[in-house]
Predict the 3D structure of the following.
Amino acid sequence: QVQLVESGGGLVQTGDSLRLSCAASGRTFSMFDMGWFRQAPGKEREFVAGITWRGGSTYYADSVKGRFTISRDSAKNTGYLQMNSLKPEDTAVYYCAAKLEPIYRFSPRTDERNFGSWGQGTQVTVSS
């Protein structure tokens, strides 16, 4: 298993930036794909961004493409989500997640059921 702890959330204004961090422990960080998800009040949790451990390929939800950047620092066992040009609709609890199995059992790969470990979440609030 792997334990994940998010940090970096907060209250910002429209157009501001935030960087979320996800500290991993319990397993070699570089050996699993990582994703960021978010859940807004009254809505289902949705995929935001993902990064593969082989080659570091990244993929994003259309709603954040061009504004958010996912990355990882294996030496620090930490993943990041850089969020720029924030909008009120980005307000949500943000979760990082790890895909522990070698394959994606569910399609599409952004399906949260592919991710077996989750952090506790960090709140991001964007005021207008």
User: Anything to note?
Assistant: The first strand starts at residue 3 and ends at 7. The radius of gyration is 14 Å.
